[in-house]
Automatic annotation (TrEMBL):
GO terms for biological process: lipid A biosynthetic process. Catalyzes the hydrolysis of UDP-3-O-myristoyl-N-acetylglucosamine to form UDP-3-O-myristoylglucosamine and acetate, the committed step in lipid A biosynthesis. This is UDP-3-O-acyl-N-acetylglucosamine deacetylase. It holds the Pfam family LpxC. One of its GO terms (molecular function) is UDP-3-O-acyl-N-acetylglucosamine deacetylase activity. The lineage of its organism: Bacteria, Pseudomonadati, Pseudomonadota, Betaproteobacteria, Rhodocyclales.
Length: 307
């Protein structure tokens, strides 16, 4: 049986909020089966619970945030991506600020934290969202699509017309039947342009942004002294983001995702398009080993739990 997962024990981290620029305390705590991923704003009185939910997503300009009753928790996508990548279904996320800390701009530090706490299987079947028919969402020349696939594959392409990005691969396919989230995706950092950073700061955004938590480029080149972590780190980060954005549907997808120039907003729209068509998806679980698709068995193999 492919089982649900949570953490063995609670784990804490401290980091800087990308937009507010202030110190943020984060605690990840085990949760019972069928809880899902629930964010808790513990700095509010009373604390506010914000469950991962595609219909609570707000402010998709720069990052994916969840909103309820006028309060929000922003920059959830890299943590959600790590949770999807490690197959964690149930978790309480306590945070004392309106955003999750940016850490190094990738999901690598979240993967390290989660693996340090230890991952525990729970005696309930993991429930997958199986895409039964293709759905698509377009906005101008940007598009995103989900198609039936007995596994989880992502195809992404980007166009930036920037010399530093164009000198790397601008399209990638990640298929978890063969690729490893931890090895192939988790270390890809977010990226930005110096002129945008200056504009955002003037508007009170990205106050915590620095070369420590993003790839930053001027008009011609990457400014980070150490260069890139993957030869195709830019498009890989778009895949990392998509994995996190899609996991806001609360279940791992059985689907092939493909996207061109898409971002957080389109990733959220495609989930809404999918959910609104009841004939396009179903929830399934794999209780018999023989009935488990090979790609799913590989992606959620218990061996991946070893820290
Ligand atoms: Zn990102």
């Amino acid at each position: 049986m492919i089982k649900q997962r949570t953490l063995k024990s609670a784990v804490k981290a401290t980091g800087v909020g990308l937009h507010g620029g202030r110190k943020v305390n984060l605690t990840l705590r085990p949760a019972a089966p069928d809880t899902g991923i629930v964010f808790h704003r513990v700095d509010l009185n009373p604390p506010l619970d914000l469950p991962a939910d595609p219909y609570s997503v707000c402010d998709t300009r720069m990052c994916s945030g969840l909103e309820k009753g006028g309060e929000k928790v922003g920059t959830v996508e890299h943590l959600m991506s790590a949770l999807a990548g490690l197959g964690i279904d149930n978790l309480h996320v306590d945070v004392d600020a309106p955003e999750i800390p940016i850490l190094d701009g990738s999901s690598g530090p979240f993967v390290f934290l989660l693996q340090s706490a230890g991952i525990e299987e729970q005696p309930k079947p993991k429930r997958f969202m199986r895409v039964k028919k293709a759905v698509e969402y377009r906005e101008g020349d940007k598009w995103v699509r989900l198609e039936p696939y007995e596994g989880f594959r992502l195809d992404f392409s980007i166009v930036f017309n920037h010399p530093a990005i164009d000198s790397t691969a601008t399209s990638v396919t990640v298929d978890f039947a063969e690729h490893s989230y931890v090895r192939d995706v988790a270390r890809a950092r977010t990226f930005g342009f110096m002129q945008d950073v200056e504009f955002m700061r003037a508007n009170g955004l990205a106050l915590g942004g620095s070369l420590d938590n993003a790839i930053v480029m001027d008009e011609y080149r990457v400014l980070n002294a150490d260069g890139l972590r993957y030869a195709d780190e830019f498009v890989k980060h778009k895949v990392l983001d998509a994995i996190g954005d899609l996991y806001l549907c609360r279940h791992p997808l059985l689907a092939a995702y493909s996207a061109h120039k898409a971002g957080h907003a389109l990733n959220n729209q495609i989930l809404r398009v999918l959910l609104e068509d009841a004939s396009a998806w179903e929830l399934v679980s794999f209780e018999q080993e023989a009935a488990t698709p090979a790609a799913v068995a590989h992606q959620f193999a218990p061996v991946a739990l070893a820290a």
